[in-house]
Amino acid sequence: MAVKMGSFKSVFAEKSRERLLSNKGGYSELGFCINDGVDETKGWRWCCSPIEVIVNSWTTLSQSAIKLWEFGRSDPRKAIFAAKGGLALVLITLLIFYREPFKDLGTYSVWAIMTVVVVFEFSVGSTLSKGFNRGLGTLSAGGLAIGMAELSILFGKGEASFIVFSIFIIGFCANFIKMHPTMKPYEYGFRVFLLTYCFIMVSGYKTREFVTTVVNRFMLIVLGAGICLVVTIFIYPLWAGEDLHNLVVKNFMNVAASLEGCVNGYLQCIEYERIPSKILTFQAFDDEVYKGYRSALGSTFQEETLLGFAVWEPPHGPYKMFSYPWKNYVKVSGALRHCAFMVMALHGCILSEIQAPAERRQVFSSELQRVGTEGAKVLRELGNKVKKMERLNPGDILSEVHDAAEELQNKIDRKSYLLVNSESWEIGRRHKVPEDSEEIVGSLDDESKFLSIKSLSEAVLDLRSVEVPKGWDVHNTNMGINTPLLEDDTSENTKIQLSWPSRYSLIGDGMLNNEESRTYESASALSLATFASLLIEFVARLQNLVDSFQELSEKAKFKVPVDPPPNEVIGFWTRFSKCFLFKN
C-alpha cells in the first residue's frame, strides 16, 4: 500500500531508510568492509623480508605490553590476585616435595594442585564458597561410593552392571536436583560430587582400594583448599561484600549524573543527528548520559553474583557483624533501578523523532531544571550516606524535590493550554465580526492562510505572544549546571533540535496541509507533557528508594551522623593576644 507523502508513516519510513542506507568510513551497517575502488596493492603482502617480520613482531609485542600495563594500572587488585595465585601454587608444590607426612603424597598430588587451581578465586567469599562446595561434594560422594561399592560386591558377576546402573541413577538425580533454583549456590558442589563418585567407583573396581582413594583425595583437597584460604584471607584480602558496597554507591552517582544530563540536554534542545545503533540495542556506547543509567540497569547480574559470595564472608572491616544484611544492598539497588527506568525514558524523549519546540520548553525551563537538580541532589546524598555508612540527617530529605515537583505541576496547570492542541480556545484579542457574507468568506480564507503559514514550532497557538528573554540562548544554555556531556560533546551525532517534523506535505501551490500540520503540532506539544510527567513520576519513585535505604541503615546499624562543630570566629585582638602569649 502506498504511503502518503508527508504523513507520519512516510516520515518514519524515510528516517528508517536513512539509518539503514547511511554508511560511514567504507563500512556497512553490519560492519562489513566495502572495498569498491580500493587498490588491492595496499592490502596484506604475503611476502615480507625478515627485517620487516622482526619489526612487526616487536611492534606487536610492545603494544601488547603497553595494553597489559594499562590493564594492570586500571585495577591494581588484579595484579595482586595473580601474584597470590602464583604464591598458592608454590606453597602446594613445596608441600608435595616434602613427603614426610604422607609417603604416597606424590602419587595423589594432582588432586591438591587441581584444588588450588580451581578453588582459588578473586574474592574471599568466592574462595570460601568453592572450597566448601568442593569439600562437601568430595566427602558426600566418597561416603556414598564406599556404600555402593560394598553393595555391588553382593551381586557377584553382576557387579559391573550394578556399578553402571548406579552411576546412571546418581548422575540423573544429581543433575536434576542441581537445576532447582535453591540449589544454585551449590552447583559446583554437585559437579565435584559426580566427578568424585564416578572416579572412585571406576578406579576402585580395578584396584579394590575404595577407602584409600576416598581418604587420600579428601585429605589433599582439604590441604589445597586450606592453602587457598590462608593466602586469600591473610594476604591482602579482596572482599566481595566491599565490591558490592562500592557498586551500589557507583550506581547512585551514575544515575544522578544521567538525570542532570537528560534535563540539561532537553532544555538545551540537544538532538542526536544519527542515533547510534548501539543505543537502540542497549549495548555499550561512549555517551555520558547513556552510560550512567545503563550501568545501573545492567548491574543486576553482577550484584547477584557478589551477593552470593558476600554471604560466605566472615565479619571484616566496617561490616563487623554476622549475617550482615547484604540482601538489603541489592534491594536498595533494585529501588534505584526502578528510578533509573524513568531516567531511561527521559533520555528516550531526547532520542525521539517528535520534539517539542524550544519556545514551549523555555516556558517550563526553570521548573524542569529545579526538579532535575533536586532529584540528582537526593541521589547523591543517598549515595554518600551509603558510602559513609551513615543514617539520614534529621528532617525530610525529599522536601525540596517534592516542592520542586509541586511547583512544576502548578506551572503545568497554569500553562496547560501549551501542552494540548486547543485551537478552539480564544487566545488574544477577538477578530472583528464581519458584516456581509463576502467579508466572512474573505476572513475565513485569511485565517486559513494564517494558520497554514504559521511556524510549526508555534503550533496552533499564537506563541509569538510568549516573550523569550534576551539572555536565553537555545544554542548555548548552561542552566547553572556543568555537565560533561553538554560542555564537551562535539561529536557529529548531536545537533540542536528543530521542531518535528522537518518536512511536511504541501497542497497545490505550496500551501501547507492544515490537518497534518495540526497533527504534528499536537504531537510535539504532547512530547513536552510526556517529559514533564516522567520527571514527576521519577520524584514519586524516590520515596520507595528512601524507604529501602532506611531499612538498610537500620539492619546494618549505620552510625548516626554527627554535625560538624561550628567554626569559631576569632577576632584580631584574640589572635594578637595568642601570638603575644606564645612569644612570652
TrEMBL record:
Coarse class of the protein's main subcellular location: membrane
One Pfam entry name: ALMT
Family the UniProt entry places it in: Belongs to the aromatic acid exporter (TC 2.A.85) family.
UniProt-listed InterPro entries: ALMT
Localization per record: Membrane
Residue spans crossing the bilayer: 79-99, 105-124, 136-154, 160-177, 189-206, 218-239
Gene Ontology, cellular component aspect: membrane
Species per Swiss-Prot/TrEMBL record: Nelumbo nucifera (Sacred lotus)
Mode of membrane association: Multi-pass membrane protein
Keywords: Ion channel, Ion transport, Membrane, Transmembrane, Transmembrane helix, Transport
Protein name, as recorded: Aluminum-activated malate transporter 9-like
A biological process term (GO) from this entry: malate transport
